[in-house]
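On clarity, I found the account of how folds are encoded harder to follow than it need be. Since the whole study asks how a given chain folds, the encoding of that fold should be made plain. For illustration, here is how one protein appears when written out as sequence plus structure tokens:
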Amino acid sequence: MILHAYGCSWTEGEGVDITIENTLSDKAEKNTFRNKFAWPALLSEKLNSNYINNGISGNNNNNIFNKIVEDIQLNKISKDDLVIIMWSSSLRDNVPFLPNNEWVSWSVKHLIESPNKFKDSYKSDNKTYNSFLSSYKDFFLLNVFNQNYYNIVNQNYIIFLQKLLEFYEIKYLMCDAFEPMVINLDKKDDITNIINKSTYWGFNKKTIRDLLNDTNRLDIWEHQDTTFKTRATQHPNKDGYRLISQELYNYIVKNNIT
């Protein structure tokens, strides 16, 4: 069995040891170091399996979705393997109602803490256009932004992959890294009854970050200060990733996912 892990920085292993990570300028070397102490490596030890860590810092859910589909199409995942998907922030997806390569924010916390990062990001060489786009983004956030758009998209991501993996008889587990995939879902758009909750850790109840926050431990975070529960740019350290691996292992065993 091979464990195939998909996600963003919380899967790649960013934050395992920021002192060492800050000394590594080569991207591949940093990725290798992070992977060694991230939850996929630690979980694979508990499962006595090999693993492939497809986590990429800054990854968005659309990329995660399409990478899994591509790997299945290319027969990179076999029937005896295990796929674990740790979804990222919905706000990272490129959207059809903004220009090419524009997206809203790294996360909801980022957007709340630093709305100007969205407003003033990705400037072109045209100053007049930049002025318009900056003012439009203010308008967008106040008058146009609708979370339910992401709720609809995310339900479809989940259900498509669920059906695809089940068709191929591939065992799988999903969870949310630091933001729920569904937030304040309108009843008229609710199709969550189709989602298999037994293969989705904490669905619509808890994120992996909530799990770590609930420990009230300062020592499991990359930035060990008083903002550890609310800081937007926060990742687990190697001890935090160890807790994540244990929680996922317990869930896998309890629900007979392997």
Notes: Residues 108-143 form one domain. Strands lie at 2-6, 50-53, 82-87, 171-176. The radius of gyration is 19 Å. The longest strand covers residues 82-87.
